[in-house]
Amino acid sequence: MTTLLVNTIFRSTEGEGIHIGTPQIFVRFQGCNIGCVNCDTKESWDFDVSYTMSLDEVLEKVETLSQDSIKRVSITGGDPLHPSHVPSLIALVKELKARGYYVNIEAAGTRIVREVFDLVDFVSYDYKTPSTTVKTSKETLVEFLKAYGPKAQVKAVVADKKDFEATFDAFHFTRSKDAPLVPWVLTPCFEPGEEFPMERFQQVVRLNENFGLPFRVIGQQHKWVYGATAKSV
């Protein structure tokens, strides 16, 4: 029997990136060892077996939430692409595709998992900025874009000018290597416990203007609506 570690499954609208506002079902995997310091779902880090669900249980929950009207699923985490998750993840994606779902995967930007990326409809690939304390290989990013650019976005959480400049440098690196141009999305950092950080949003918008508008600045809609600490919304 195929089992998965799943933190939660819920219905909402996409809160960030180019598909913002799109209704979909979220399947959040449990377990991540990447360690971004500004992660807003640290409760999904532990590889806790108490979160075990069978594949049939996951699919039943997705179908119930879908109500035959929402045929999009976003797989997130945690880190759904951690090697320990990949076999069950592939089984899940194959079954969702067989049932007619459009499948998006949230990729942490630390690895390319071709056997998953080949199956899904869309990949949201993180570029990890300095404030996360995690590093994304620019060479791996180029490799990813050349293979999957037509169905991808690159997303970066930006806390300050240093984060912006690092993202701008990575963007130009990929262009210098003839990687295809895809949507690059800047997400101004909005941490749990914060009031809406208006000045930070304005700074990111101004920096983008000053650097020639290479990016789309898209905040996290679910945090504006429900607050930065709300879960599964």
Describe this protein's structure.
The protein has 233 residues and is α/β, with parallel strands linked by helices. It has a single domain, classed as Aldolase class I (TIM Barrel), CATH 3.20.20.70. It contains seven helices and nine strands; from the N terminus they run E-E-E-H-E-H-E-H-E-H-E-H-E-H-E-H. The chain has helices at 55-66, 86-98, 114-117, 138-148, 161-176, 198-210, 221-226, and strands spanning 3-13, 23-29, 52-54, 72-76, 102-107, 122-126, 152-158, 184-188, 216-217. Strands 3-1-2-4-5-6-7-8-9 form a nine-stranded mixed beta sheet. Helix 2 (86-98) links the parallel strand 4 and strand 5. The longest helix is centred in the last third of the chain and has 16 residues, at 161-176. 37% of the residues are buried. The mean pLDDT is 95.
Features:
nine-stranded mixed beta sheet; TIM Barrel; alpha/beta; single chain; 233 residues; 7 helices
Condensed summary:
The chain is of the alpha/beta class and 233 residues long. It has helices at residues 55-66, 86-98, 114-117, 138-148, 161-176, 198-210, 221-226, and strands at 3-13, 23-29, 52-54, 72-76, 102-107, 122-126, 152-158, 184-188, 216-217. The chain has seven helices and nine strands.
